[in-house]
Amino acid sequence: MNQPLAYVHPGAKIAKNVVIEPFTTIHNNVEIGEGTWIGSNVTIMEGARIGKNCNIFPGAVISAVPQDLKFDNEDTVTIIGDGTTIRECVTVNRGTSDRMKTVIGENCWIMAYSHIAHDCRVGNSCIFSNNSTLAGHVTVGDYVVLAGMTAIHQFCSIGNHAFVTGGSLVRKDVPPFVKAAREPLSYVGINSVGLRRRGFTADKIREIQDIYRILYQKNYNNTQAIEIIEAEMEATPERDEILQFIRDSQRGIMKGYFGNN
Fold it and tell me: Residue 226's domain spans which residues?
């Protein structure tokens, strides 16, 4: 249902049962899936690919060109997965030639005034509180929670099930399953509350705690810690995910609170 005071470009592909409220503008080369609601005064620009049953609140700007001086009008896109909610005045920029797309996964909750820059990849079921800011090329895993006013440096990675406390400046990679806090950002424990809510058993949570005790609380460097974890701890999907994340880190992982590597 399109309100007469909304503008929808003839080249946009709008599925059935999409509601577009007044004073919204939808540009060419846009696709919107069934059951999605677009609030008033939303701007959806070229390259947007919005899934089913999404909710986009007033003032949001989706798929604007990147804030990147190297951008040369490449044919790039912004992808927003099914069931995701974008709250007021959120801005999401489309990709550049680096990754060609900016992606937000399914069932995410992106709160007001957050910014997701070009070439970011956000996983499924993430929650970004108000004023969360992702610079370009950031990778965020599934079930990540960013508390309010978190700012993430370009090219950083945040692992699955991580929690980053409010007002944090994220300059290094944040491994999976952890809580990150303080300044400079540091490991302060595992995200046990979030893990329990998502069905992790007590034994699995203890296993993850044991891994991070070796990594962060035994005065080993990362190389030593990885060798000990591999030698002493049974191979499990969670163990291997943590180790692979550390090996793949380009910016280095955040330190422990006591300054351990």
Answer: 195-256
